[in-house]
Every structure is written in C-alpha cells, then in structure tokens.
Design goal:
Helix content: 40-55%
CATH class: Alpha Beta
CATH architecture: Alpha-Beta Complex
Largest sheet: 4 strands, antiparallel
Radius of gyration: 14 Å
Number of strands: 4
Number of helices: 3
Structural class: alpha+beta
Order of helices and strands: HEEHEEH
Distance between the termini: 39 Å
Shape: globular
C-alpha cells in the first residue's frame, strides 16, 4: 500500500507517543534508536539486563518485546528490544509502555 499523508501522520503520532512514553517511564535508562522513520524502534538496555528473559516474561502478559540481542550476527551483542508500534493506537502506547516498565523493573 502506498504511503499517504494520513498514514504518515498516524505513524508519526505513534512514533512520537512511543518515544515520549519511553523517555517518561525510563528516563536515560534506555537508549532509543531508529526513531526517525519506520514502524519499529530499537532500544538498548543496561548491559546486565537479560532481554530474552524479559521478553519471555512480557509475552506471558501479552506484551510483545523482541529481544535485540537475537538480531546480532557477531560478538558484541547489546541487550535491548525491537518495539513495533504499527498496530497500536497512539493513545494506547503510554499504557503499553507502563506495562513494559512493570515487566522490566
């Protein structure tokens, strides 16, 4: 489907809601990457976090967090998450991030 201005406006609103919610809930604890475009963000976490275990716990609560460490093909993996926001409304994102905070802390 070609991008329309309405689609772009929705994805921009979702992306903005996600970035603002992550910053509000986690402060500088998470490093946010890929916020300029697309339907996913990558966030890196402190090195002692086990993103695979956290993602498993989140899944038990119907929250999708893709472990970033699985995306690495070389040594030097960084823990974190790939967060999709394409199917979530901008108004639902703050609540989802709050749920994420309760899973990881």
């Amino acid at each position: 489907m070609p991008a329309t201005s309405a689609n772009c406006a929705c994805s921009t609103a979702r992306r903005t809601a996600l970035v603002e919610s992550l910053r509000s809930e986690f402060g500088s604890l998470l490093e946010i990457g890929g916020a300029a475009a697309g339907m996913h963000l990558a966030v890196t976490t402190p090195p002692d976090w086990n993103d695979g275990e956290i993602a498993s716990g989140a899944a038990r609560q119907n929250l999708w967090l893709w472990p970033l460490s699985l995306a690495y093909l070389v040594d030097g993996r960084r823990p974190g998450f790939i967060l999709g926001f394409g199917s979530t409304t901008a108004s639902d994102i703050p609540r989802a991030v709050s749920r994420m905070d309760s899973v990881v802390t």
